[in-house]
Write a structure and sequence with these properties.
Strand content: under 5%
Shape: elongated
Radius of gyration: 12 Å
Distance between the termini: 16 Å
Number of helices: 2
Length: 48
């Protein structure tokens, strides 16, 4: 179950990065920051 959730999170991150890249440098920077914070929040939530 955990591996499925991690896989889904990584897929969403890749999609966000791709859309950020197509939006230019500012879009990429913004998307990387968002995906980084989303991953951090997910890890904090899953940690015991």
């Amino acid at each position: 179950m955990r591996s499925l959730l991690i896989s889904m999170l990584l897929l969403v991150t890749v999609i966000l990065l791709y859309t950020g890249i197509t939006g230019g440098d500012d879009g990429t920077k913004r998307q990387v920051e968002r995906s980084g914070s989303a991953i951090g929040a997910y890890i904090r939530q899953m940690s015991p």
